[in-house]
Amino acid sequence: MSNKTEQGKFMLKAYSPKEIRNMYGVSANVFNRWTESFKDEIGELKGRYYTVSQVKIIIDKLGAPGIVEL
Question: How remote is the C-alpha of 64 from its chain's centroid?
Fold first, then answer.
């Protein structure tokens, strides 16, 4: 199952850190550098996954993976 819908849009749901990094196509080190300035806003993982609210913060800050805005 893909993390994107049939129409190519990002599906907002709980994701593991690895799933999010894979969607952006970056390593753990790169992702950590990207999110360093708003780590406090994201908060701690809930179990092994970021909650939908946490994923929304990441997407709001970094943009949706695979979607280019002109």
Answer: 8
